[in-house]
Each structure stands twice: as structure tokens, then as C-alpha cells.
UniProtKB/TrEMBL annotation:
Domain called Sigma-54 factor interaction: residue spans: 147-376
Chief place where the protein resides: cytoplasm
GO MF: ATP binding; sequence-specific DNA binding
Native organism taxonomy: Bacteria, Pseudomonadati, Thermodesulfobacteriota, Desulfuromonadia, Desulfuromonadales
Positions where 4-aspartylphosphate occurs in the chain: D57
Name of the featured protein: DNA-binding transcriptional regulator NtrC
UniProt KW keywords: Activator, ATP-binding, Cytoplasm, DNA-binding, Nitrogen fixation, Nucleotide-binding, Phosphoprotein, Repressor, Transcription, Transcription regulation, Two-component regulatory system
Organism: Geoalkalibacter ferrihydriticus DSM 17813
Amino acid sequence: MGRHIYICDDEAGILRYLQKMLLSQGYEVEVFSSPLRLLRHLEEGAAEEPAGLLLLDMKMPELDGIDTLRRVRELRPQLMVVMMTGHGTIDSAVEAMKLGAYDYLSKPFPQEKLFTLVRHCFEREQLIEENRQLRSELKNQVDPGTIIAESPAFRKVIDLAVRVAATDSNVLILGESGTGKEVVARAVHRASHRNEQRFLAVNCAALAETLLESQLFGHVRGAFTGAGQNQKGILEEAHGGTLFLDEIGDVSPALQAKLLRVLQEGEFIAVGATRPKRVNVRFIAATNKDLEKEVAAGRFREDLFYRLNVIGLSLPPLRERSEDIEPLALHFLSKMIPKTGSSVRRIDAEALAALRAYAWPGNVRELENVIERGTILADGEVMTPEALPLKLTGCARPPVAEDGPLPLREAERRQIVLALRETVWNKSQAAILLGITRKTLDRKIKEFDLSPAAAGDLS
């Protein structure tokens, strides 16, 4: 919005007085002794001209303040207006407010009252602008290109995430590995009022219990061997922001009890400490486990489950959102081009069909890996099925002999031979095609007694 102020009053002395006062406070000021001149200026002004604030006199000979206000609202609806009057009544003030005036001042008014009102106007507009930016950021978070959500199943999840973002309620995100649980968690954080604070994520399955406890709660010097100094935990670092607990279903019962205290009381005790610390954190947890079954089996605390599951978001697997496969693939392609330096610019129809037909057990993460691989292996500007793993193309279909299915061992041999032939005996690329390690491929080549000559022989 800036700090631009227009003043319209037919009394030259008032104009000079207000201009001098407001210039001394660092505002940009334009004065108009005629409402018609003001309206002409607003009508002819450039669209990018600052919105700002208008101090408008109620009683002027050419056009009164109410009629001027009506015209101003038509020309610049975003312009904040404060009415000034020495002859005002409650009725005229109410009418001005109904027409969109922010407030009014009765002449004569002290400097401090004017300064306070002007400051409040700009603070209000700053909040409006911040909310507009927040809505824009939220839109970016849920629109294709950031979170691809063209399928009805995933769109429903994102719509709920939008509503959740405005609250401080804890969120539990359920879904298979690779479905984008952390992406959704970050989107909820960025769209919340905590978005200027930190978003911290911890993978609860990646750390041993004692290390995870120290990471979460911090520790004091001497708490355990090697604890040479006090160390803040992630909880304390996330104060005011959001903490994402990934793979919450793998947390031990003892640590579950300590997390429950944080959720219930808003406080925790660092490892080795005796005094609790208070913390204000929004929790978003995620797991690929069925926590209700874990609760029934006694492996997960029921009270912790309900504390986390205030709002539940269940992410559908990629195989249930086939409408998103193509836009996701194109999104990842645009992301990978600068990363890999590839010349690929598009994916051909046959390759897209193969992507859509695949079941994607690794979900979105697997698709991203496949597209990255495709940008590296593709020849030219078009990604074709040849750049995709064999499991996505027709080569991945189990080999069948004329008189019925081949024995499993022979089918495996043929798949390896196909990969070696396709890559002209490039073992590294063949291993990628087959989805196995180079070491495994070397072992299979030795087991089947294969040689470069065999790459052209399927008999």
C-alpha cells in the first residue's frame, strides 16, 4: 500500500497545515483544493499508482463529501477514506461509513489524534495485504504445479487441508509411503498464521529411541555420555511454528507418553533436566500404518492417537488418482531439466500411456524417480518408452512361450537378457532398467552364464 496520502479540502490553510504535519511524519502527501480536481486525478491516474489514504472534507462548494466519496469508491475502491468535518452530524458520519469510509475526524482535531488514526489506517491495510498474500500463497500451495490435485480423490483432501490451515488443530496425515505426506504438511504450515515461524520435520523411524528423545526434547550437560553441553531440542526450536512428526507410528510407548504430555500440557522436560519448559507448537503427524489397528493391538496409545487425530487427512495412493499422473510427470520433467541438464522437453504419448498404466507401488516418489531417470537416459528432446524402466513398458510383461508361461527361472533370464540387449551390455543402465543393484546384476549374469553375445539371443 505504501505511505501515500491524498488530502481534499477547500480551505487552503487546512491543506497547508495537514500537509506540513504529515510530511513531518514521513508520509507522501498530495493536496487538492477541489473535489473535481481530485476525481479527475484519480480517474486519469495510472493503475499502478499507490492506493494509500484519502482525508476528505465533508463540506465543499463544488461537490459535498458524501457525493465525492461515492465517486471515489467507484474509481478507487481500494483507497482508504477518512472524512473530515466541522459541521458533521452522527447521521452524516453513519452514511459515510455505510459508503465505505474507514472513520471520520471532527474539526478541530489534535495532531496526535490525526497521527494515531492515520497509523491505524495503514496498519489495517497492511493486514489486508498480508491476508491477500496468504490467500495467494495458499492458492499456490494447492494448485497444480505445487500440489497436483486434479483428481477428485486428492482434491477432496486438499480442500480439507485448506480449511484446516486456518486453525491451530493438530493434524494426522495417513497414507502409503511416497504419497506426499510431508508436502501436504508443509502446505498446511505455509497457509497458516504460523507461516513466518519455523517448520521442522523429524523422521521418527530413522532414529534410535534415545537419540530421538534427545533430538525432540534436547538435553542438559552431563545427561549422558558425550553430552558435553546443553542442547536445545527440535520442540524448543519449533516454538511458535509447526513440528512435523513423520512415521509417528514407529515411536516407542515410552516416548509416546512424553509426547502426550507436550500435547496435553504444552510443556516438556529436556533429557537430564528437572524443570519443565513450556512450548507453543502445532503438531502435524504422519504415518503409513493403520493407527487404529495399532491402538487395538496395544502398540500405540489411544489417548495420543486422539490428541493427534483432531483432523485426519487420508492421502490416496497414486494408483487411485490416475488423473494426476500425467500432470505430475510433466511437473517433475520441468523440475528435472535444470537439475540434470537434459535436453528433454516433452514426454511422448506412448510413454505417458505406460506411466498411466503402471500401478506405482512407490507412489509419487517413485514417479519422480522414474522421470528423473528418463531425463537422463532419453535421446533428444522427447522422452519415449525406451527411457523408462522395463517394468513400465511392454518388456515388463512376463515372457510367455508359445505353449504357455515360461518357468520362473527362464522368465528371469529373458528379462535380464532384454535389459542387456536394450542397453548394449551397459550393466549400470541395465541394472537401472531392471530395478536391481549392479552387484545383483553381476551375480545373475554369472549365475546364468551370460555373455555379450547372449544379449542378442532369447532362445
